[in-house]
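Now read this:
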Amino acid sequence: MKTTIRKTIWTNFAAMAFILTLMVVGCKKKEDDTPTPVPTPDPLKSTYTLKAKDIGGISGTVTFTENGSQTTVSISITGPFVNSGSHPANIYSGAAVEGSMTGAISLTPVDASGKSSTVIAQSYSTLTNYDGYINIYLSSAMDTILAQADIGGNNLTGTNKIYNLDTIGSSNIKGTAKFEQRINNTTLLTITISTVTGDPLPPGMYPAKIFIGTILTIGAPVTKTLNDINSATGRSITNIRNLDPPNSTAITYTDWLNSPRFIRVFDPITGNPVCQGNIGM
């Protein structure tokens, strides 16, 4: 009788243990089957710095934010006249220094708080590779630019190379040539000149050209005509995509560094060279 009771107790105990095991395994399996939530990635963003153009003291940013198949363009500026009303803003093709004003994409005007937000029907990838720039204007007359910025492929990479331009003969003028690389591998070239003695530059617009060869090359052909240097600022800025006609061959920032050429700056009255320097290899 006692043996039968013990067997019954052990049988019941074993059955309960088996049931509990199934319950634990079942619960664990249910937990393991629950899918892990996949986090939503943050939208991609690119920010460009706005620089003052016709009115000093303006600063700000333009931010492109991925918005599905579209892009949100957000503008934020501060400085004089910003709180004076509505300021039109457009995206154009080309570089700011070229001032083409073609292919305009109208943005929501910047309000008196210095803010603007526009959703445009361009993908984030398209816009961040776009060969363009943005202008923000003082008023609807669009004759005064508050600020501007190169965007997309025209944005500068931060890579640059500076060459010295030395005086020629008894000239009192020296300078530098700064080549800056854009994301699309075209070039922004800034020529800056000044007098060796520190006196003001003789007034006028100083022509500047790039030649094939070195400063010792006789009869070197012109390969690129640059924007004239204004004596008032001592500076010229040229965006370079191609060499001069008739061939108008495309040339990259990398090309400039890997080929022997030189820059020469000329007097605006006599046409005589005043400073020069080798560039490239």
